[in-house]
Amino acid sequence: MPSRFLSVAITDRIATVTLDNPPSNLLNASVLKELDQAFGELEATDAVRVVVLTASGRFFCPGADLKELVQLNTAYQGSELSGLGQALLNRIERFDKPVIAAINGTCLGGGLELAMACHIRVAAAGLQLGLPEIKLGLIPGFGGTQRLPRIIGPSKAAELILTGEAITSEEALALGLVNRVVPLADLLKQAQVLAGMITAKGRLAIQSALRAIRTGLDSPLAEGLAREAELFGELCETADEKEGITAFLEKRQPKFTGL
Q1: From the CB of residue 41, how many other CB atoms can be counted at a distance below 10 Å?
Q2: What positions carry a catalytic annotation?
Q3: What is the pLDDT of residues 172-219, one digit of tens each?
Q4: Which of 33, 57, 58, 171 is close enough to 167 for a disulfide, judged by CB 3.0 to 4.6 Å?
Q5: pLDDT given at position 111
Q6: DSSP assignments along the chain, one per residue
Q7: Is residue 168 over pLDDT 60?
Q8: Cβ distance 70 to 204 under 8 Å?
Q9: Which of the following CATH numbers is that of domain 203-249: 1.10.3470, 1.10.12, 2.40.50, 1.20.1250?
Q10: In the CATH scheme, what is the code of domain 6-199?
């Protein structure tokens, strides 16, 4: 898939998508459109089971391109850009294949919003994360006001959004904003090891688990439980479920087929 602002490599059923918009991987409309195209193609690629999203250089993504923002002079233009970003991040969040963010450097504004849309986040030690839009007279526009409170709670999210102050990856780990903090040199390897642990599981069960989690976040508890029971029941009819239980009883590794 030809691209100007990112690269995609597929190895062992893991697709590694790398933002490459020098010098700092700023997000603009063109980058968002390329990411949307890439995820659309990966969604349709059966050989891909997990996606790792990372970036080249010293930055993961420090946010939106201010040269683009300064040209937004009407409410319509602002809402249109916000809607473009939200549509992409919603697509990533609702992806039926796990998406792991490997945060290699500064991760601010739209960059953090992009990372929060991923299902799992692994961060390099000692980097900065935050939503500084308030310092520009703005608010997060790609879902930050909605996802951050859901991840770390409304009170702490309000503090970070209203002050615009950044936190370290270690502080983010303590808040549950990232899943793991590792040395930068080990970041991509650790993210791919985690992805490999997931690809070893059954595709149908992984897909169903993501769908159940997603329903629970969007619905009251009763609806989430009902959806969980429905998905659990569907899996009981699959060959993968029979193989998983048989392999456990026979003390061997399962051989899942996605059937």
Answers
A1: 13
A2: 113, 133
A3: 999 999 999 999 999 999 999 999 999 999 999 999 999 999 999 989
A4: 171
A5: 97
A6: ---SSEEEEEETTEEEEEE--TTTT-B-HHHHHHHHHHHHHHHT-TT--EEEEEESSSEEE--B-HHHHTT--SHHHHHHHHHHHHHHHHHHHT-SS-EEEEE-SEEETHHHHHHHHSSEEEEETT-EEE-GGGGGT----SSHHHHHHHHH-HHHHHHHHHH---EEHHHHHHHTSSSEEE-GGGHHHHHHHHHHHHHTS-HHHHHHHHHHHHHHHHS-HHHHHHHHHHHHHHHTTSHHHHHHHHHHHTTS-------
A7: yes
A8: no
A9: 1.10.12
A10: 3.90.226.10
In this structure, the strands spanning 99-103 and 50-55 are parallel
pLDDT of residue 2: 65
Would the CATH topology of 6-199 be identical to that of 203-249?
no
pLDDT tens for 65-89 read 888 888 888 999 989 999 999 999 9
**Residue-level pLDDT at 73:** 86
pLDDT at 1 over 80: no
d(CA 47, CA 131): 35
Cα distance between residue 256 and residue 241, in whole Å:
9
Residue with tokens 């893991």, as numbered in its chain:
14
| Distance from chain centroid for Cα 38 | 14
Per domain, the residue ranges of the chain are 6-199, 203-249
